[in-house]
Amino acid sequence: MRILVVSDTHRDRWALHRALVAQPKARTVIHLGDGEEEAREVQASFPEKTFYMVRGNCDWGSKLPARLIEKIGGVTFYMTHGYAEHVKYGMDEVEQAARENGAQVLLFGHTHEALTAYDSGLYILNPGSLHGSTGTYGYVDITGAGIVTNIVHLH
User: Cα–Cα distance between 133 and 141 in angstroms, integer?
Assistant: First the structure.
């Protein structure tokens, strides 16, 4: 099972659309904030995909939750934009929140810096920012052999 993970699209509908087209195997899409408007627009073009979204600090007036804890493909995900957990100042707070909620995978954005890591049973992915010509996104593969996270540069 492939899950497309994007964040910080900042009104770049075209980049978001390109990422979805580039990952046709991804039946699930997670948007980690700062792009609710374009995420909802693009979602309408891909009704066969399941979308999860959290609000970012630039999603003014959003009614989306600041964080989600969801089981997808048998794996527990902690999803947040990251501003509420102060990720620009370190990852201790967000990692602790993910562990306290029993997550196996931590997904966050906000820093615009792509990151994939593994720490003591916790897979960590920040897809970076999908905005602009140097945009990045990530994906999570859940297989019988385990979990794999990856960063992709949108060309």
Answer: 25
From 3.30.1360.110, 1.10.1040.10, 3.60.21.10, 3.40.50.2020, which CATH number describes the 2-153 domain? 3.60.21.10
Give the whole-angstrom CA distance, residue 131 versus residue 48.
24
Beta bridge partners of 115: 126
Measured in degrees and rounded to the nearest 5, phi and psi for residue 40 equal -65, -40
Inform me whether the pLDDT recorded for 155 exceeds 90.
Answer: no
Encode burial over 25-53: b for 16+ CB neighbours within 10 A, e otherwise: ebbbbbbbbbbbebbeebbeeeeebeebb
Instruction: Give the pLDDT confidence of 94-140 residue by residue, as tens digits.
Output: 999 999 999 999 999 999 999 999 999 999 999 999 998 889 999 99
In the chain, where the domains are located: 2-153
pLDDT tens per residue across span 68-100: 999 999 999 999 999 999 999 999 999 999 999
63: three-class secondary structure by DSSP? coil
- Give the burial class of 15: count Cβ atoms within 10 A of its Cβ; 0-12 exposed, 13-18 middle, 19 or more buried: buried
